[in-house]
Amino acid sequence: MSLPASGPSADTEILSWNASALSSAIHSREVSCREVMAAYLGHVDRVNPRVNAIISRVSDEMLLAQAEACDRELSQGHSRGWLHGVPQAIKDLSPTRDIPTSMGSPLFAGKTPADDGLMVKRMRDAGAIFIGKTNTPEFGLGSQTYNSVFGATGNAYDHGLCAGGSSGGAAVALAMRMLPVADGSDMMGSLRNPAAYNNVYGLRPSFGRVPYGPAFDVFGHQLATEGPMARSVADLAQLLAIQAGADPSQPLSLQDDPAAFARFAQESSNTRAAKGMRIGWVGDWNGYLPMEAGVLDVCKGALNVFSGMGAEVEPLIPDFSPQRLWQSWLVLRQWAVAGKLASTWSNPDTRQALKPEAQWEIEQGMQRSALEVHEANVSRSAWYASLLKLFERFDVLALPSAQTFAFDVHTPWPKEVGGRSMDTYHRWMEVVIPGSLSGCPVISIPAGFNQQGKAMGLQLIAPPRQELELLRYAAAFEAAGPEWLAQEPDWR
């Protein structure tokens, strides 16, 4: 890397680096943390008004002062970690002790939590400087990033289209190079759908890999998890290494050493990891899942990349009722959402501030019985057992990351997909629930673009706790260099 002395060309060079290259340049003193911060803040000022991805901005004066403090630490031989001096913006669902966490809700607009969330603290301790938050739908409900507090976030490639969600702001900020790497969270595809729509990588870790806290319930709710998004697989692994790791406050968190992910990021990737790889292509589950025309074709193009590296791709129809899976999901999601928001719904003064989809979700959850929740967990357990048998034959299962391409940014959610009506506000994302309910690691890799220039992703579901293998497969895909990986949005 060679950086011009100063000016717009220097800023463009800084912004062109992925997070690993940026971290290396900072630690080698090739560029100062202040220069990096100034470049990013100027870029956010120019670009963010187009897409509305970053919200709740911290003042430039305060951020530049934090960057200068990071420079002084480096001059004294001290580094906080891989993110030392690196600008970040945290998803607006995760608590930040010095920036409002509005969760896209007018009920929490401008309110600042007392403490950082566990993942946020880990990123801060690793040296990240938080410039603001990234936009999300109200309480993260729905895969379309819009809310009444900050408005909608536009797609990186076509600002008139939606960003996906609920980590839509994170994905767009990443693709538009307003952030070098980004955090997100995933209950119903919220790391995968926006990654797909913005041609980046999103990883939903195994349940317990990235423990969430603080939380009132540390045993029951097992649907959502935080995780990383990145423009490269190495960056994805490096951020996961920071986010992951056991914590005594979270009794179900995994004990594995997260340093393994950092070591992986330093390995030189090649295509050999895919040779002999066995992929079970679920596709549209034998027609059960409605798909917009072109989605399956784009994903098959990504599968062809794996085939070209020596992988075996076999069509697969899981021996499990997808309708049973959907019913399990409905009950568990409604139960979880109602448990979190029932008190808000019960108060007439606050209920009216909830969007209709949130009210519906809570109302449904409050009608569920304990037996229904038990039966839903039994179905989920049966699906996990079925998956274990499939993983005796396959290394990963593959599905599209969404059932439709990005749609108009002013449309709350698609009422129809592939000629079929959607009976709930999230039915159009049913394709993600096999991964969500499994608790297994799932990655969305960029699958390419359709003829209209809309991006799509390919989900790969790996066996339980096999993030490293999943990252190796993704790195092999990246090393194969499909041309769409270099197809960037207009971020300059």
UniProtKB/TrEMBL annotation:
Q: Which GO terms describe its molecular function?
A: catalytic activity
Q: Where in this chain does the record put each Amidase domain?
A: 35-471
Q: Which InterPro entries match?
A: Amidase, Amidase_dom, AS_sf
Q: Write down the Pfam families for this protein, in alphabetical order.
A: Amidase
Name assigned to this protein: Amidase
Q: What is the lineage of its organism?
A: Bacteria, Pseudomonadati, Pseudomonadota, Gammaproteobacteria, Oceanospirillales
